[in-house]
Amino acid sequence: MTSLPVFLVDELPVTDAFVLDGPEGRHAASARRLRPGEELAVSDGRGGLVTCRVEHAERDTVALTVLHREHRPRPELTVTLAQALVKGDRGELAVELATEAGVDDVLPWRAERCIAKWEDGPRGAKALARWQSTAREAAKQARRPWCPDVAPAVSTAALLDRIGSAAATLVLHESAEQLLPELKLPAEGELVLVVGPEGGISDAELAAFTEVGAVLVRLGPAVLRASTAAAVALGAIGALTNRWR
Predict the structure, then answer these.
(1) pLDDT tens-digit series, residues 75-102
(2) Which end of the chain is more exposed for a tag (fewer CB within 10 A), N or C?
(3) 3-class SS string, the chain
(4) CA 130 – CA 123 distance, rounded (Å)
(5) Residue 116: predicted pLDDT
(6) Left (φ > 0), alpha (ψ -120 to 50) or beta: where does 81 sit?
(7) pLDDT at 2 over 80
(8) Under 8 Å CB-to-CB from 245, ≥6 apart: which residues?
(9) Is residue 187 within 8 Å of residue 77, measured between CB atoms?
């Protein structure tokens, strides 16, 4: 079932016959060119998934029949990415790769050394909307029934509160002595993964994180970009825990 193309809707159909319309219907009919007899999956992005057969396709709508319904729970160990704001489209790249690698939630983080600034108001709202749209499209590409929630940007103080209630927090940093594969990770709860900006995490931020129980870790000898570090770490976490089982 997971090999079928996935289309996201706000609410799953309650009947066995329904019409997929709007942008998703247009994409299914015109871009994917799905035809009668072919199958697809429709998800609400919250674990719900229905397998459907195409009965009829117009230019921007597809008539479907539901063949199977299921709900896939979130993993027992969820990963929240606290991604520092980065300039240009690298922030969207970070969200895209992390979503494909299985991240459950994303917290845009206003770190001290961020070059990018999400000011309150329309500009900040537009930047947040881009991250949310990126997560949505990446979830569809990865055939994920869960679409990560991308929250409004948080300050370091708010991030520290989140860390305080998490099962564990890993801060990726090139100076860390601890290697990620050497850690004993929790089996359940929330794992917060912190990735800094291009200029790095400040000494004051590192001290604040460790004071509330975060662990500084590194992935290996190479220093990764702020846009790719989370995806690599998520791959390691998936292999080291039961998230991929």
Answers:
(1) 999 999 999 999 889 999 999 999 999 9
(2) C
(3) CCCCCEEECCCCCCCCEEEECHHHHHHHHHHCCCCCCCEEEEECCECEEEEEEEEEECCCCEEEEEEEEEECCCCCEEEEEEEECCCCCHHHHHHHHHHHCCCCEEEEECCCCCCCCCCCCHHHHHHHHHHHHHHHHHHHHCCCCECCEECCCECHHHHHHHHHHCCEEEEECCCCCCEHHHCCCCCCEEEEEEECCCCCCCHHHHHHHHHCCCEEEECCCCCCCCCCHHHHHHHHHHHHCCCCC
(4) 11
(5) 86
(6) beta
(7) no
(8) none
(9) yes
Q: What does the alpha-carbon distance between residue 170 and residue 41 come to, in Å, rounded to a whole number?
A: 35
pLDDT of the residue at 121: 86
Query: What pairing do the DSSP bridges indicate for beta strands 215-217 and 168-172?
Result: parallel
pTM for the model: 0.92
Q: What's the one-letter identity of residue 205? A: E
